[in-house]
Specification:
alpha+beta; 8-stranded antiparallel beta barrel; 8 strands
Length: 249
């Protein structure tokens, strides 16, 4: 069974740059994105914006045996094994990035009250970067500070690749944020999908809706996709915690 994973690991800068420039290859590793970690909402020009020594890695595997072999035998895999990762079951795709366009739009339904993981991946239009930062940073802070996210961060690989990763206590909370219903709402569909947007009393809750409207007006990206997953298991620790998924269960 195909498996996806998201990894966080600290590496010496020289080693991190090596893997950013040349992604690993291994038997059973179908696709991989190696990115430098970013703190959501950080100033555009700051050391927190691109943290080369804190790598974020999103990968697709032929099966769990391929992942285990990589973590045990591959030099980069052993680095990742010393950090934290979550194993994921794919549920749904919006938009498209060429490397992940093979994933179906629907593969399963999320329990609206169970933890869920969201991954976005974009290939930027570089002339649109100032607009992207202007509209994107408020959304980054909205996701980062949401009471129902247990982990939220971003990653980038110059010059064009940008990704976000977030763990939510429930699909209901995540879709509530997406559709601007405010913290902790997201009431509506039993499938985990929110109803159509409505006016919200709190304008801060509408940041994501506003940014998506601006993107529709003039796209920031060559390609963009949002992927939703059911977390299967988490391994290791990150920033002193090892319960990002279980803490939301």
């Amino acid at each position: 069974m195909t498996l996806h994973t998201f990894h966080l690991a600290r590496l010496p800068r020289f080693a991190a740059v090596r893997w950013l420039l040349r992604a690993p290859r291994a038997r059973g590793l179908r696709r991989v994105e190696v990115l430098a970690g970013m703190r959501l909402g950080a100033p555009a020009l700051s050391l927190q914006r691109m943290q080369v020594h804190r790598l974020a890695v999103f990968a697709e595997w032929e099966d769990e045996a391929a992942l285990e072999r990589f973590l045990r035998e591959h030099p980069f895999g052993r680095r990742l094994a010393a950090g934290w990762h979550v194993r994921l079951e794919f549920l749904r795709r919006w938009g498209s990035v060429a490397e992940y366009s093979h994933l179906p739009e629907h593969a399963g339904r999320a329990d609206p009250d169970a933890p869920v993981v969201a991954v976005t991946l974009a290939r930027m239009r570089l002339p649109e970067l100032p607009r992207f930062i202007r509209w994107g940073r408020p959304v980054e802070r909205q996701v980062r500070d949401h009471p129902q996210t247990t982990l939220a961060l971003a990653g980038m690989r110059p010059p064009r690749s940008v990704s976000t990763f977030s763990v939510w206590t429930s699909a209901r909370a995540m879709t509530g944020m997406v559709f601007g219903h405010g913290a902790g709402s997201g009431d509506g569909a039993g499938s985990g999908d929110a109803p159509e947007p409505r006016d919200a009393a709190d304008p801060e809750a509408r940041r994501h809706v506003a940014a998506m409207g601006e993107r529709d007006r003039r796209d920031f990206h060559h390609e963009f996709t949002t992927l939703r997953f059911r977390p299967l298991s988490e391994h290791g620790s990150w920033d002193g915690r090892s319960d990002y998924v279980r803490g939301g269960a």
